[in-house]
Amino acid sequence: MTRIIVVDDHPVVAEGWSRVTRHLSDCEIVYTATPLRAFQVSREKPPDLLVVDLSFGDERLAGIKYISRLRLHDRRVPVLVFSMHRSAVLVREAFRAGANGFVNKDASPEDISTAFTTVLAGGRYLAPDMATRLAFLDLSTPGEPAPAALTAREVEVLSLIATGKSYREIAQISCVSYKTVLNIGHALRTKLSANSLPDLVVKAVEFFEPR
Q1: Residue 144 pLDDT > 50, yes or no?
Q2: 57 and 125 share one domain
């Protein structure tokens, strides 16, 4: 039996994957609402495929963190990210964390099915339009912000800024010094052309808004 674990905080998503996998005669869909629960369920019985969202509530990068931790002890199981996010930077970070494929939740049923079957078979998947955006990620227009230059740590701090966390709170959560977060904040303001901290907060929220 093909065992699929869907890690998403929206139950309707699991129902959708049941329709996507109906062509498989022997398939089991297991729904988990949190990455922590996914770890527990995976240990009980390893899946043949993990379908993972990126954001869980205010945890904008919870899915990417989950994939990174998963890859520390399991390099085998295929991981397909299923998200509303369209940021090429987040797609890049998902693949760097260890994802095998990425498909948007608003993609056509045919594209979602293709992503599913490709990753389940051991391949890699990225829609052509997103692949193009990823390929041109490092080519910035003069005078425009260059989000491609963001490091993984900067993306993490930006995600926490987007939730309204102060620099001191971010330092505690990330287990780094306040000075380190302050320096990262200055770097983010430069890279995202933010004129002030409030402006950076606005840009952070916009960065993580599905688009």
Answers
A1: no
A2: yes
